[in-house]
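Field: sequence (string)
Field: structure_tokens (string)

Example rows 1 and 2, in order.
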Amino acid sequence: MAPGIDFAELDTVATPDELATYLAALDRPEGEPTSGPSRSVRTAEHEGHRITLTTTYDVVVDGTPVTARLHVSEDGMLSAPGLPYHRFTSALDAVRALMSAYPGHFVGGS
């Protein structure tokens, strides 16, 4: 057993609902949207030209807008702060994973 770690307490506070509650209480960085579509901006240089690519995700679940905060990396993979150790090739897969990880934040469905 690691010194100073209470594994019973860790099991209690490490649930997805507890993490979601903790993250929701944190201060958001200046300019970080709290609702509405999620935007991801990437830039690159190619043969002397500057490229700016803005990807916008407008996520709606059961008719309710959801701020999923999806981000696209330089290699085209998606990530979401709510699932920091996951990467996705599909925005739909990312939203499905968020719904599975945080079911209490989504109403309706089966």
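Row 2 begins here:
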Amino acid sequence: MKVAIGSDHAGFDFKEMIKEHLQNKGYEVIDKGTHSRESVDYPLFGEAVAKSVVNGEADRGIVICGTGIGISISANKIKGVRAALCTNEYMARMARKHNDANVLALGARVLGIDLAISIVDTFFSTEFEGGRHERRVHLIHNIEEINL
């Protein structure tokens, strides 16, 4: 599986640790930046990761900023992205099972790295359930078609 990952300066250290973790597990990781702790604007990196997922360069994405809020909002502006901000494993599991989320958002200033890695592992090991949830994801897609 190919994973696009991106962060702002607040999420840089998390990005580097998560990237290494994923590579050690055999994932191909596409780093969309940033590449230092120097201050940058998170929307650019949310957009870059989201576009990688939508255009097929990556199967899924991870976006990280201080809280995960701003970068998840940015990623969700790209048609076809369902970015989910998750603060625990249950949210990551449900984001995949019920919402078929294709981008995981994390907050580096609100999570410890061990929990963040556990959330990442849960997100990537959980499959979409389909069934009644497929109808709801289709409704999300319809809203997107009309409004974006």
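free_text_note (row 2): Strands lie at 2-7, 28-31, 60-65, 83-85, 103-107.
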